[in-house]
């Protein structure tokens, strides 16, 4: 089977307990653009919000399912334990540090664990996040910050960076990453705060937007997800033909999976790696402008055509969320 390598991180999806507070933080504090306000296609009673660069280019999407009754996250192993957001330069991290101080956002000091300047912070619900500099990036490029963002363009977030996985049995995850998904192990480094070894895997062109950072943690119990936890990470597939080949490959490796799933804005395939973390493979297109024009992305509740006949019923279950640009 002639299968192309995965191109990098496509999106990361997390959980929020309050869509309005989430919208305020990610647009007004982080300066991302809401490119799509829609619903969870597996549970249309809750919002699914997509934040990204100016038009939601693949590799820039950070998405949230609203679960109003979501409790706190009990941090543990076999989970996605941090999501990083790319900026263009090391200098940008100083801007973000000062911005977080001004807005009373929990954060640490700027440091360099893996040779890149990084700044750890938490959002308003405790989600573990990192601003990471692209200054030394030699892989795939990032996106373009939205011109109407409250953050100056030169400091704006240009996409998703490395995703950190913490697992109890790393050899099982590594087998899937390397032998099934085609990732390459390229290096390891020690975290400054605890001297833990982090193993780095890359795919496609490599670089900031195409890496998984893996940590072993066998002492803790499995993480119990809640508000501020990450639901899944998705990886980029070029098109539908390639996605169908991935369905075949997962079946050949006897990995239980969803098969082809229509998401309208992209097409998907879901499976869990052996430590239980949910992975998705998602196509680069069609994108977010099929049902809204560029200037008005995210302003109205967007529904895929197969849900449009249920719009009145769906809207009645949702708390109104004002999202004018």
TrEMBL record:
Residues 8-134, 159-284 form the VOC domain. InterPro entries: Extradiol_RC_dioxygenase (IPR052537), Glyas_Bleomycin-R_OHBP_Dase (IPR029068), Glyas_Fos-R_dOase_dom (IPR004360), VOC_core (IPR037523). Signal peptide: none annotated. The keyword Oxidoreductase applies. PROSITE patterns: VOC. It comes from the Bacteria. Keywords: Dioxygenase, Oxidoreductase. The keyword Oxidoreductase applies. GO terms for molecular function: dioxygenase activity. This is Ring-cleaving dioxygenase.
């Amino acid at each position: 089977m002639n299968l192309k390598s995965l191109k990098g991180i496509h999106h990361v999806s997390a959980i929020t307990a309050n869509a309005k507070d989430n919208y305020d933080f990610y647009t007004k504090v982080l300066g991302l653009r809401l490119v799509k306000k829609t619903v969870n296609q597996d549970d249309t009673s809750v919002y699914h919000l997509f934040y990204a660069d100016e038009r939601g280019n693949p590799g820039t999407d950070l998405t949230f399912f609203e679960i109003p009754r979501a409790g706190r996250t009990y941090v543990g192993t076999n989970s996605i334990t941090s999501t990083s957001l790319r900026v263009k330069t090391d200098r940008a991290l100083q801007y973000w540090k000062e911005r977080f101080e001004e807005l009373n956002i929990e954060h640490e000091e700027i440091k360099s664990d893996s040779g890149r300047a990084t700044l750890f912070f938490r959002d308003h619900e405790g989600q573990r996040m990192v601003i990471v500099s692209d200054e030394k990036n030699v892989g795939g490029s990032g996106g373009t910050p939205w011109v109407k963002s409250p953050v100056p363009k030169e400091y704006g977030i240009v996409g998703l960076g490395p995703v950190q996985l913490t697992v109890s049995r790393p050899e099982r995850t590594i087998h899937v990453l390397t032998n099934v998904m085609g990732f390459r192990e390229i290096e390891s480094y020690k975290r400054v705060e605890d001297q833990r070894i982090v193993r780095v895997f890359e795919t496609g062109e490599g670089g900031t937007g195409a890496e998984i950072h893996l940590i072993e943690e066998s002492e803790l119990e499995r993480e119990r997800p809640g508000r501020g936890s990450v639901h899944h990470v998705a990886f980029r597939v070029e098109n539908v033909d390639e996605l169908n080949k991935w369905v075949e490959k997962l079946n050949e490796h006897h990995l239980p999976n969803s098969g082809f799933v229509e998401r309208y804005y992209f097409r998907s395939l879901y499976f869990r790696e052996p430590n239980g973390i949910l992975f998705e493979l998602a196509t680069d297109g069609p994108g977010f402008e099929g049902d809204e024009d560029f200037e008005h992305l995210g302003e109205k509740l967007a529904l895929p055509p197969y849900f449009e006949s249920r719009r009145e019923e769906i809207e009645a279950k949702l708390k109104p969320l004002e999202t004018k640009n």
